[in-house]
């Protein structure tokens, strides 16, 4: 941990005042209210050592990072049958694209683009009586964190302006790959994306993807080894939409971004690290987050390659 700590401190100081690049997401109006100077990092290793710096304990809107958690729960419930409803191929398209759905007959390319995450939301809505409550308690139970919650403000703000997601959901339903009422599915999706967590919360909750022996609060495994391998593989190939190749190329770890400016990255068998900086590049990924992780894996020689 001492080596990681020193390197994290050095890169943090080097990048702290670099803030002239990128733009905070404001297509969901409530996200635009965040202070764009926020910058935090937190790492948790599989032997439960941890270190954080900067705004690592401030909660923010995790947005698409939540798609890992909904995928995890749906995978647990459905097993391999899940892949009949959503594919595992990189889309090479923006996260909110409708384009490939027509030729793919309503089967989204992967569970991390919005189309795929909406199908996953449909699966969870069909499974639970109170999907929002049950999903939240699943998340709280993983790392024994009772402080997790949705932001009703962010969820309502996206509900008012999320015309593209509404279009995606209706379009997929026209192919028969949404089984439940679209209003219910979208309400779940918007709430899931509005989850608030800090870098510390995130690097603790996703340890189950780094540690084969991770047990949740109740002493149970979250995923089998094979399932964890598969989710890591989808993160590596699809976690950054049409910038997934670039993230693998520069950082070399499975990861997932969100338009709130967070990035989670996993080193299987070593650690989970999270960076938060709200200014995004044109592909919707945190500019400084990517830069930080590129420097971190280079200096610590800890990419998976
Ligand atoms: N809620 C956001 C949306 O659907 C999530 C996108 C993201 O974080 N990439 O647009």
From TrEMBL:
Q: What is its EC number?
A: 3.5.1.2
Top EC class of this enzyme: hydrolase
InterPro entries from the UniProt entry: Beta-lactam/transpept-like, Glutaminase
Q: Which Pfam families match?
A: Glutaminase
Gene Ontology BP terms:
glutamate biosynthetic process; L-glutamine catabolic process
The Swiss-Prot or TrEMBL record describes its family as follows:
Belongs to the glutaminase family.
Q: What is this protein called?
A: Glutaminase
Q: Which organism is it from?
A: Polaribacter vadi
Task: From the UniProt record, report the name of the gene that encodes this protein.
Answer: glsA
């Amino acid at each position: 941990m001492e080596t990681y700590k020193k390197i994290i401190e050095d890169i943090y100081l080097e990048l702290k005042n670099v803030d002239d690049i990128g733009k905070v997401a404001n297509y969901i109006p409530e996200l635009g209210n965040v202070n764009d100077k926020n910058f935090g990092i937190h790492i948790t290793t599989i032997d439960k050592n941890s270190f954080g710096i900067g705004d690592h304990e401030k909660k923010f809107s995790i947005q698409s990072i939540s798609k890992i958690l909904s995928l995890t729960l749906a995978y647990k419930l459905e097993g391999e049958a899940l892949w009949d409803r959503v594919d595992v191929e990189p889309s090479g398209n923006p996260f909110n694209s409708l384009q490939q759905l027509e030729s793919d007959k309503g089967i989204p390319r992967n569970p991390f683009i919005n189309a795929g995450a909406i199908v996953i939301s449909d699966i969870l809505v069909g499974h639970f009586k109170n999907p929002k409550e049950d999903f939240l308690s699943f998340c709280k139970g993983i790392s024994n964190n009772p402080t997790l919650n949705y932001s009703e403000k962010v969820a309502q703000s996206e509900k008012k302006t999320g015309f593209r997601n509404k279009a995606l959901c209706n379009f997929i339903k026209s192919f028969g790959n949404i089984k439940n009422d679209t209003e219910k599915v979208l309400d779940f999706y918007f709430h899931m994306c509005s989850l608030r967590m800090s870098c510390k919360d995130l690097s603790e909750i996703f340890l189950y993807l780094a540690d084969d022996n991770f047990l949740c609060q109740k002493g149970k495994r979250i995923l089998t080894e094979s399932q964890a391998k598969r989710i890591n593989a989808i993160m590596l190939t699809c976690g950054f939409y049409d910038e997934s190749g670039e993230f693998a190329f520069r950082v070399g770890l499975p990861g997932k971004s969100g338009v709130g400016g967070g990035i989670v990255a996993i080193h299987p068998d070593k650690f989970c690290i999270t960076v938060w900086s709200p200014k995004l590049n044109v592909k919707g990924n945190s500019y400084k987050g990517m830069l930080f992780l590129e420097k971190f894996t280079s200096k610590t020689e800890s990419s998976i390659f």
